[in-house]
Amino acid sequence: MTTQAPASGLSARAPEMLSVLRIVSALIFTLHGSQKILAFPPTEQQPPLASLMGVGGLLELVGGVLLLLGLFTRPVAFVLSGMMAIAYWMFHAPGNLSPTLNGGDAAILYCFVFLYIFVAGPGPWSLDALLRRR
What we know:
Helix content is 72%, strand content 0%.
């Protein structure tokens, strides 16, 4: 007779927690885009759409909403992961390589969370999963 370790019960919830990770990270990420593109929450930073920051804000807003819904999750996560890697090396690293000193810790974290989502998929609570079931 084998006994289950308490952690094995938690492992059964891993697919749902993948969805939670995707939803929460996408929601926070979307706020960065809505601040740049829609000025909500209100900010002084309003980059022109035809600038690097404007395009980044548009990707944050649209890509964040798609990730939040879990629609086209893998390709969107791949693009956003790459965008965050570029953002780190273009805007944060030139000042200082240390993320704690250059303010790039969020960019690195988003990069690897989105890379994980690209590999792992959207989880069960997503439009992708719903469409796949049909």
